[in-house]
Amino acid sequence: MSDLKQSYDHVIVGGGVAADKAARAIREEDPDASVVILSDVGDGPLYRPGLSKDLWLKDGATLEGLYLGTTDTGVQLALNTTVTAIHPGRHAITTADGEDIGYRRLLLATGAAPRRFDTPDDERIIYYRSADDYRHLRSLVSEGTRVAVVGGGYIASELAAGLATAGARVSVHFPGRRLLEHMFPDSITGHLTEVYESRGVELDGGFRLASVRTGERLVLVPESGEQVEADVVVLGLGAVPDIRLAEAAGLEIADGGVLVDTVLATSAPDVYAAGDIATFTDPLLGRRRVEHIANAERSGETAGRTMAGTCTEYRYTPLFYSDLFDDGYEAVGEARTDHEVVEVWNDAGDAAVLYYLRDDVVRGVLLWNTWDSVPKAREIMAASREGMLPTTELTGQITPGG
Questions:
Q1: Residues 206, 96: one domain?
Q2: Domain's final residue, options 191, 210, 235
Q3: Around 283, how many Cα atoms within 13 Å sit in the side-chain half-sphere?
Q4: Do 98 and 120 have their domain in common?
Q5: Which of 257, 313, 259 is nearest to 283 (CA)?
Q6: Strand order in 327-333's β-sheet?
Q7: What does the record list as GO biological process (predicted)?
Q8: N or C: the chain end with fewer CB closer than 10 Å?
């Protein structure tokens, strides 16, 4: 029998970082408020980036160390609980068990799900997103396991580095010419190619997956070219925001996400959205949707404070970051090579600041092996947006390697 109450002051749908931050903010603003988090997975909120970073790359890192301790705040956490509908008109949600739960205010923080390909049902084929996915992949990988990673982006590049560090024989298969070429210019992608190959990772550009065949070994069948055999296949094809509840309830959708105003309120009364699903107005870049941890943390906290009665505007340009073997970066804004890229390197050639421009305005800054400079990067973007920083003066704004 469920121990859920008939109604709560605050109902949060989704069990990730945004939900945790919102719950903590609500409790800080209103310690007596009743709060429940409804999550359709069996694990409590955890620091998701660690699933593809720390757990593979850092000695002594454990899954338990990633849990955020959400219930320490006194909120109720209902795991393995799927919400099937929201009813803004009567301020209620419905669960898969048929329970109706009322709310005074509701937060949608349903996150994103892995983008899927038409693959057979085989436990050796993995879409990587959750703690269960980590446990399963770890159970399949040991020294010498042949793992084929499909995808050329953020999650694929991180997992390839992590799996290689764990001793697997890793190959990465992607449609582009080089890994991460949508983000990095040739100066960096060429370096990464050398690094990955020196660590035993095979990089297979120009690969377009047609199907996966099962048998004693898995076989990747490309649209053209040679087939690839593997013991395990990991598909890192990006993510899709989970906006099904919002769409079904008639909330306004924009740019693939749930449209919110400056306080993260949706088009429905007393319904808010945060994290991966929220389409918000970035103070430097305008309307956008961001699938990175910093946005989930900050937007969850902001939504929680507003829900608890302290109206707080979301005025934030999120950062994102990654570690790739011995290299690392932090970035703000649009790190996209379809923009003009201005590169500033240090004398040693191992650290850089990259500026991404559109119409002579800095839309993004990438700090390659350069640290503690994210606030300055935002200042540069703001000054460029206001026409106060000519592109000729970008060199010297941030010292590469700092």
A1: no
A2: 235
A3: 13
A4: no
A5: 313
A6: 319-324, 327-333, 361-368, 352-358, 340-345
A7: mitochondrial respiratory chain complex assembly; programmed cell death
A8: N
Q: Are 98 and 22 in the same domain?
A: yes
In this structure, the answer to whether residues 24 and 107 fall within a common structural domain is yes
SS3 88: helix
The conformation of residue 148, written as its DSSP 8-state character, comes to E
Task: Give pLDDT < 70 ranges for the chain.
Answer: 1-2
Read off the tokens for 131.
Answer: 């703690």
State whether the Cα torsion 55-191-181-366 is positive or negative. Answer: positive
User: What pLDDT is stored for residue 51 in this prediction?
Assistant: 96
> Which pLDDT does position 402 carry in this prediction?
87
Residues 71, 35, 292, 320, CA torsion sign? negative
3-state secondary structure of 136: helix
Tokens 């003066």, located at residue: 393
What pLDDT sits at residue 2?
Answer: 66
Q: Three-state secondary structure along 187-221?
A: HHHHHHHHHHHHCCCEEECCCCEEEEECCCCEEEE
Tokens (6 digits) for 163: 């799996």
Q: Which of 235, 267, 298 is the endpoint of a domain?
A: 235
pLDDT (0 to 100) of residue 309:
96
Q: Same domain, yes or no, for 103 and 248?
A: yes
